[in-house]
Design brief:
The chain has 392 residues and is of the alpha/beta class. It has 14 helices and 14 strands. β4, α8 (169-177) and β5 (182-185) form a beta-alpha-beta unit. The chain is elongated.
């Protein structure tokens, strides 16, 4: 189970990278180094001590790395005294929720211990963190795994019980080297960071709840996330082992009639399901989910929402298919209502559309029973169709 979340600090909790960059460039200018923010960005996620050492060696400065480090730290402190620490939007609301959910919190930052404590006190979050770990406590800075290995030790847990939130390439590499799943926070002030090795990318902390991190942890450990538990159905993310159970449904001629390129689609499921789970479920938090009968425990179809371009417009589209043995008993209506509730309550999605073949009278009735309204007729994938929509 997920027991802890370990956060980087700069660029994740506080938007300090622009301030650090400004301080660094001021100090480097004293030594005749005309650097820009792009030069500073290479050090984001690593320690200031590592930066000082590299700059002294690279530019053959007459000062020691320790002397340059002190100047850099003094310049940072001066800027923070003047401008303060700026929390990222949503952080001050999210952190208390994680603590209330019983999740331990730790900092693993390249900043020095005093700066970590000062920053957290400034944004009124220090009391929520169980451990504050600085790279000054380790032999090697990020991207080495030392700091995350130390954080796990201090928390008294192992890598299978935690996840990391990072905004830099060095930080993500450090987390992954320690065997930890990692959420990559895309902070535009952190420069051009390659976060592609992160398990999922996040662009804002606003509205993020503990369930978001729980789902990331589940997916990283190959566990399916349950979307809804209705009177007769369980709707959850699919795993690769579920795919063979879809074949009989696809082979049903009544079902296949309204699925385009059915043979190609089946092969695609086999070859790309793992990538779909890893990329689509994790990146969007939604996709096509499995529909399971509580009575038989078996897979009876798929239902969910996906991003689609429809008539030149980006939409979030409802899709579903059920085996014909479950037609006429209200299962489609039951699973689609559950998807709508999840879309509003968890994903904060308020418009969903469906494109329905004019000849598919069952789906038309389901859409109308869901409260969806016809917007227009259109040709979609070569079929004469009707675009239905609903505002949730």
């Amino acid at each position: 189970m997920l027991r802890a979340i370990i956060f980087d600090m700069d660029g994740v909790l506080v938007d300090s990278e622009p301030q650090h960059g400004k301080a660094s460039l001021e100090v480097l200018k004293r030594y005749g180094i005309n650097a820009d923010m792009e030069y500073h960005e290479q050090f984001i996620g690593s320690s200031t001590a590592n930066m000082a050492k590299q700059v002294v060696e690279e530019h053959h400065l007459s000062v020691t790395p320790e002397q340059l480090l002190e100047e850099l730290n003094q310049a940072k402190r001066a800027i923070h005294r003047k401008e303060g620490y700026i929390p990222l939007p949503g952080i001050q609301e999210m952190i208390p929720l994680l603590t209330q959910a019983g999740i331990k919190l730790a900092i693993a930052s390249s900043s020095n211990p005093t700066e970590i404590e000062t920053a957290l006190k400034s944004i009124h979050l220090k009391k929520y963190f169980d451990k504050l770990i600085s790279s000054s406590h380790t032999k090697h800075p990020k991207p080495a795994p030392d700091i995350y290995e130390l954080a796990l030790k201090e928390l008294g847990i192992n890598a299978s019980e935690a996840i990391v939130v990072e905004d830099s390439e060095n930080g993500v590499a450090s987390a992954k080297a320690a065997g930890l799943p990692c959420v990559g926070y895309v902070n535009p002030h952190s420069g051009k960071q390659d976060l592609s090795e992160a398990d999922v990318l996040l662009e804002s902390f606003e509205g993020i709840t503990p369930s978001f991190y729980q789902h990331i942890w589940q997916r990283s450990h190959g566990e399916a996330v349950t979307i809804a538990n209705t009177r007769r159905l369980i709707i959850r993310e699919l795993v690769v082992d579920d795919i063979p159970a879809l074949y009989p449904i696809y082979q049903d001629p009544d079902v296949a009639k309204f699925i385009d390129d059915i043979e190609e689609y089946k092969e695609k499921e086999i070859a790309k399901q793992e990538a779909y789970i890893r990329n689509v479920y994790s990146f969007y938090g939604y996709g096509l989910w499995g529909v399971f009968s509580k009575t038989t425990q078996g897979l009876i179809g798929r239902c969910g929402i996906e991003n689609q371009v429809i008539d030149g417009k980006q939409e979030i589209m409802l899709s579903y298919l059920l085996d014909s043995d479950h037609w006429g008993y209200g299962y489609a209506l039951e699973c689609c209502k559950a998807v709508f509730e999840y879309a509003v309550d968890v994903l904060h999605i308020h418009r969903i559309v469906a494109v329905i073949d004019k000849e598919n009278s069952r789906s038309i009735r389901t859409a109308e029973n869901l409260g969806m309204k016809p917007e227009k007729e259109l040709t979609y994938k070569g079929r004469d169709s009707i675009l239905y929509s609903i505002k949730l």
